[in-house]
Amino acid sequence: MSTLDLPWQEKYRPKSLSEVIGQKAIVQKLSSFVERGNFPSMIFAGTAGIGKTSCALAMAHDLYGDAITSAFKELNASDSRGIDVIRGEVKEFAKTISLAKVPVKIIFLDEADALTADAQHALRRTMEKYSGETRFILSANYASKIIEPIQSRCVVFRFKQLGEPEMKEYIDRIVKAEKLQIDDKAVEALVYVGDGDLRKVTNTLQSAAMQGNKIIETHIYEIASRARPKEIASMLRYAVTGDFENARKELDNLSLSHGMSAEDILSQCYKEVQGLNVDERAKLKIIAEMGESNFRIVEGANERIQLEAMLANIALIAKEHAK
């Protein structure tokens, strides 16, 4: 497959630590490991799309260059969760000799928090036995799901959520490389729907570019199946003022016109609460109400009923604090 045919997520993945967006403190530390040619086993912890996998791959490219295939092995632990993959594939690679200039190999386990407890205990033993020739990088959304014996053998790097400047820098890089035309509102929309996840930003931007080189705000929200912030805010304002009928109409528009799920609507509602013109105590109760609605929906309750109940309760909360 040529570079032109690659999904942009792979096409624009950093090939070196110097190309990584954001995470400056972590990149500096990893770069010092590359310079020394020696490093400990590590856990990369943080939410999706903020550079954990990119940093692991970029570090491997900087360390091994063209000999990367003999010294670096990547496995997705969510696909191979059991003890067999640790005793088989991982252990076999850990025993091999690196042909790269750096004698230490890397085994990268993506989504390592998906490994079963038995698999993690087997991994701990493998890490001990082959510590002289193999280092491990474990990527996890929830580092707390990694057993303590493994955590104590690793340096834990906690990746921070990417901010708006880093996301805009990344968008600008792709726009220039692909010769796209994009206005400021579309960039703001990408930052909004991405919510710190560069993977989501990349996929949304590529999908929008397939419709043409000129990208506008409407394209972004349509592709991401997200509502504009003002549409969510309008629904909440109707609820706060007690206009339940119009609040329901806005909810219909979000569910039917945009095809949004209840969880997506709640997620965006949560973002817009701070902009409501209500008492701060009312905002606290509204957030608590959204949390309850989200829990009930996740547990299998009727989505429509829960969303309307949330709007009704928001109206009651606002009325209570207006007295």
SSE blueprint and pairings:
Blueprint: H1 8-11, H2 24-36, E1 42-45, H3 52-64, H4 68-71, E2 72-76, H5 83-95, E3 105-110, H6 117-129, E4 134-140, H7 148-151, E5 155-158, H8 164-178, E6 181-182, H9 184-194, H10 198-209, E7 214-215, H11 217-224, H12 229-240, H13 244-257, H14 262-272, H15 280-298, H16 303-322
Parallel strand pairs: 1-4, 1-5, 2-3, 3-4, 6-7
Helix pairs in contact: 2-3, 5-6, 8-9, 8-10, 9-10, 9-11, 10-11, 12-13, 12-14, 12-16, 13-16, 14-15, 15-16
Write a concise synopsis of the structure shown.
The protein folds into three domains: 3-158, P-loop containing nucleotide triphosphate hydrolases (Rossmann fold, 3-Layer(aba) Sandwich), CATH 3.40.50; 164-224, Helicase, Ruva Protein, domain 3; 229-322, Up-down Bundle (Zinc Finger, Delta Prime, domain 3), CATH 1.20.272.10.
